[in-house]
Structure formats: C-alpha cells, structure tokens
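Re: [ENG-882] Designed sequences occasionally contain unexpected residues at chain ends

Forwarding the minimal case from QA. Structure tokens:
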C-alpha cells in the first residue's frame, strides 16, 4: 500500500514536471538507427515544394548470402528513400535511370494526373541513361509508395521501393512514429538473385524465408516503455502476405491505404497483402523487454503447409520511459460513403489458366494482359466494381488513380468504412467495391502479386474517353 501510493506520488510529480516543460517534438530516429529510412534531399527552399533527385541504380547489400547481393536501388539504398511532405505540397522528381534496363516510377496510391502515374498505359519506359521529370501535387494525407511498373516482379524484388509520407491536418499525437517496410527476398546461397523462376514462385509470387524490415534481417525495432507508438506499415513483398503480430500487444488500426479511417479498431494480428498499408497505434509495455514480431499462419491458397508462423523481428522495449501516458484516439477522420448511382457495374473475373504451350497464365475476364479488354468510365462517375475470383488463391486487387470503398466481401457488407487502393479478393470469392473516377486517363487495375500482374492479371479502366498507349499496341 505504502509503496504503491509513494509510486503514485512520484508519478504525479513526473506528470507535473512534464506539463511544465515545453512540448517535445516526436524524437527523430537517431543517425545510427539501422531501421531509419533515408530522407530525400529537398532542393527547393519553398516549404510547399519537395524537389529531389531520384536515381535508379545498382548497389551492393549484405542480405545474408555468402557474398553481398547486387540490389537495385533508388538513390543507393534498399529500401529506397522516404519523401516527407504535407498535404497540398508539390512534388518535383528528377528521375534518372542508371539500371541496365528500362524502368518507370509508379506512385502507388497517389491521386495524380494520369500522365504522371508512371504506368505503361500512360508513359513509355525510361531507358538506360535517360531521365524523366515527375511533377504532381499531393492531394491526400497517408503513407504511399513508389516502385517500377516495368518487369515489376523482377525490379521490385531486387529492391526498388520508396515511401512517401504525407501529413494532414488530423495527425494523432503520439510519442514515437516509425515507417516499417515489410519485405522478403529470394536469393541463391551466394547472394545472387535467381534467374530461373520456379513453378512455386510463378504461382505464389517469389516468397522466401529471408524476411526484411526496412531492408534488415532479424530487425530489432526499439520502442520506449509506455510510449504511444505509431507504426506505419507497408507490405512491399512480391507475393508474401504478412499476418503481423506483436506478442502480447493489441494493435489499434487508425488508417490504411488512403489515410486515416473514421473508426479506429483493435486487432490481435493484422493481415497485410502486397502493396497494402496499415497505420497502427499501440502503447508499449511499461517494463523493458523483448516482444516477438511475427507473421502468423494465413492460408492464401496453393501453399498448404508452407505458411507456418515466422519470426519477422523483435520489438525491443527499453530506454527512457515516457513521462506522461497518452491515450489512443477513439475517433479518426470523417469520411463520407461514396454515393452509389445506378450505372451498370464494371466486372472483373480473376482467374488462372494455362497457355496452349502449357505455361501458367493469369487472367482478367478470360484474357491475359495486354489482351484484356479495357473497361471505361465517364469522368466523375462513381462506379461499382464486381471482382470475382475464380481461382483457388487470394488476389490483392489494386486500382490506380483513385481510392475505393469496399462494399461487401462474399456478400457480407463491409463492417467499416475506409479509403483503399488494394483489396484482397479471397479465393473462389467475390468483393464489390465503389470508386469515383475523377481524373481522366488510362488507369491500370491488377493483382499486386507482381508475378500475377506480369503473368497477365492486369487491365485498364479508361476514364473520360482516354486512350491508353499500351492497349492494343503489343
Ligand atoms: Cu503498386 Cu500498378 O501498382
Ligand atoms: Cu494474384
């Protein structure tokens, strides 16, 4: 009793001391933090313009092979840099391709003019030694990312991934925040990337046991005792689904692909398919210690027995405890349901099959890209998309250029409202979504298992009478 009240008094003193002090800004990850992403160098002094150089080039990185791996990078690191910006800022990107093959930079989840989307529907690939200037305004707050859209399975696997963090007016007040890029990488023993792609990799996307957090194996993620901690998660893997769990800690989801959600909700583990983002909060335990960061079993089809729980890393609780306990916010960002008008739905049937040559192929509406017939929408249409999965594995379906809201999965109305750009269409299942097409142009839709999109599960929605540069030109 006595000790308890003594501790209570101390706590109160601590609280008073904290109130008297100036409000500290969230501590920046230290210079030696191996999990810190490298910020881009802003070359424009204006606070509302972020202008930087982005060069795709080869570099070496130790990924656990007997020799360093030759990875492909943006600005020399894997994963690439982080772009920090505010809603409304203009991004000016001086891109240069120093890879031995053509590439494109696609700004995943960013709503922008189609000409800046970096997909083969709107832009010719940037050849070796060539440059391109991307320029667009950031309309939304959230965590977005960028990656190639040419030979995507190979180029993303080799390390070409970068992050854009856009802050908005309603950011939660937290003690610490971290961006965690989840990935896995399939390597030969000597650290080289396999040139032969085995059948399992074609079917499931390259999946490997080397799990990475911000490019680091066996990552140790430091958190402070009692700290309200924000993790901003991106799954940048080709095929692996992360079903993420921190031992003994419940996560509160406050946001996803398109920014904050209206109603935060609690989960024990969080399923994140390739290209999805989740924004989560948790209060770190009060006592120092180590918590296992794992991906829990999830059966996404065709991999029975290949998906045991795996260790991703460790959350290390230690250091200076926070002085004052912060609460997890109960409400998020107001979000209106998209008004459904009675136009006919756009239907996509997702399936796998074999070519006459006996090769595995992936299809939308019975055809493989680029033979998939383009769908169309009028400018500013809100359309329902019916996604029907005829195959025995899940497909994370991604739509360029807009956010959508999930209406129902397998006939069950979605329990929550959120702006998404990727949704898991479960095996042999069906998902309906609503999207507003408010930007003219040729927008790609595809499975974000990169081997599947490349294998043919990719199509287009032409908005406002746009013409695609890819469609029919192959
Ligand atoms: Cu991550 Cu076509 O996109
Ligand atoms: Cu797929």
């Amino acid at each position: 009793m006595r000790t308890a009240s003594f501790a209570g008094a101390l706590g109160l003193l601590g609280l008073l001391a904290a109130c008297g002090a100036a409000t500290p800004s969230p501590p920046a990850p230290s210079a030696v933090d191996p999990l810190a992403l490298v910020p881009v160098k802003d070359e424009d002094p204006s606070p509302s313009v972020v202008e930087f150089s982005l060069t795709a080039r080869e570099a070496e990185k130790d990924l656990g092979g007997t020799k360093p791996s030759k990875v492909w990078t943006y600005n020399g690191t894997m994963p690439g840099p982080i772009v920090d910006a505010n809603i409304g800022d203009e991004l000016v990107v001086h891109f240069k391709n120093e890879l031995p093959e053509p590439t494109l930079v696609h700004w995943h989840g960013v709503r922008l003019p189609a000409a800046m989307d970096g997909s083969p529907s709107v832009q010719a690939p940037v050849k070796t030694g060539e440059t391109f200037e991307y320029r667009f305004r950031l309309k939304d707050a959230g965590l977005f990312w960028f990656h190639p859209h040419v030979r995507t399975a190979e180029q993303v696997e080799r390390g070409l991934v970068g992050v854009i963090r856009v802050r908005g007016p309603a950011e939660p007040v937290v003690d610490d925040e971290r961006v965690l890029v989840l990935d896995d990488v399939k390597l030969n023993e000597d650290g080289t990337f396999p040139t032969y792609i085995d059948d399992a990799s074609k079917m499931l996307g390259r999946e490997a046991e080397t799990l990475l957090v911000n490019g680091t194996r066996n990552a140790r993620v430091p958190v402070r005792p009692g700290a309200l901690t924000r993790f901003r998660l991106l799954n940048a893997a080709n095929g692996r689904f992360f079903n993420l769990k921190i031992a003994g800690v419940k996560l509160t989801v406050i946001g996803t692909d398109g920014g904050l959600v209206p109603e935060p909700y609690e989960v024990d583990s969080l399923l994140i398919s390739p290209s999805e983002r989740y924004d989560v909060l948790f209060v770190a335990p009060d006592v120092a210690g180590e918590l296992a960061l794992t991906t829990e079993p999830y059966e996404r089809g065709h991999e029975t027995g290949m998906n045991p729980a795996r260790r991703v890393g460790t959350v290390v609780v230690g250091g200076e405890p926070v002085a004052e306990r912060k609460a997890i916010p109960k409400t998020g960002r107001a979000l209106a349901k998209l008004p459904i008008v009675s136009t006919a739905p756009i239907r996509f049937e997702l399936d796998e099959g074999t070519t006459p040559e006996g090769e595995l192929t992936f299809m939308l509406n019975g055809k493989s890209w680029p033979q998939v017939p383009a769908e169309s929408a009028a400018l500013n249409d809100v359309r329902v998309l019916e996604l029907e999965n005829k195959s025995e594995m899940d497909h994370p379906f991604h739509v360029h250029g807009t956010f959508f809201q999930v209406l129902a999965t397998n006939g069950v109305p979605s329990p929550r409202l959120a702006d998404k750009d990727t949704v898991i269409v479960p095996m042999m299942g069906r998902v309906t979504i609503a999207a507003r097409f408010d930007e003219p142009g040729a927008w790609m839709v595809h499975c974000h298992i990169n081997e599947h999109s490349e294998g043919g599960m990719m199509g287009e929605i032409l908005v406002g009478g746009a013409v695609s540069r890819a469609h029919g030109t192959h």
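QA comment: On inspection the terminal residues look reasonable. The chain has a mean pLDDT of 92. Proposing we downgrade this to a documentation issue.
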